[in-house]
Each structure stands twice: as C-alpha cells, then as structure tokens.
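A further point concerns the way the authors explain their paired sequence and structure data. The central task, working out the structure tokens from the amino acid sequence alone, is never made concrete. I therefore recommend that a typical entry be quoted early in the introduction. An entry of this sort, consisting of the sequence and the corresponding backbone structure tokens, reads as follows:
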Amino acid sequence: QVQLVQSGGGLVQAGGSLRLSCGASGRAFSWYAVGWFRQAPGKEREFVAAISPSAGKTDYADSVKGRFTISRDNAKNMVYLQMNSLKPEDTAVYYCASPSQGTPWNQILTSEYQYTVWGQGTQVTVSS
C-alpha cells in the first residue's frame, strides 16, 4: 500500500507563500487520489483540497479557493499544495492523505473516513 511522507512546512508572514510536498512510495501511486487536511489548535480537522488519480478533478474548501492549488506529478510520485496569500487563520498542522484505490470521487470529498493512509503532518505557521 502507498505510504506518504510530507515536507515543506514552516513559518511565513501573512501574504506570503509556501509549498507543501507529499511524497509517495509504491508502484501504484498514480492509481490513488490524494487529499490535504489541516487541523488548527483547538479545532477539528478540516478538508482543504483533493485531487483525483490522473489530476482530472480537483476540489477545494471555500476558505482556500483562489489561494491554494493542489497538483501532482505522478512521474515523481509527488503531490503538492501551493499556498499563496497566506493568512494567520491558515496556521495549522497539514496532512496529506489517500483513500483506498477506487473510492468514488464524491465520497473522497465528503468523508475523511474514506482516507486510509496518512502522512505524518507538517506545521504551517502564518504570522501577522
């Protein structure tokens, strides 16, 4: 089964940018959708973005639309989250995650319980 390792977190000032990376092991990486989630202190984990196996479909939480872009490079076994115009409320631990192969797109978008593999998480802190 695919395993996920994250990198790219850090500290940035409001209005700045960061790119998170999620590297996958496994020969069948291109068969898996990938989602990004985040959890801020004292808050529940929330959906951020998702991308389909072939990158034909993407979706974003309303709070990040127009600012974040999810992408993937299957040749490199990588998924990225480009975060622009960062706000202090974006501060959170960010996780990449992948559902089981073949999970319908609508279930990927509506239920975090469909995600069976998770990265280790990386801290993103946006200062004012």
Remarks:
- The first strand starts at residue 3 and ends at 7.
- The mean pLDDT is 93.
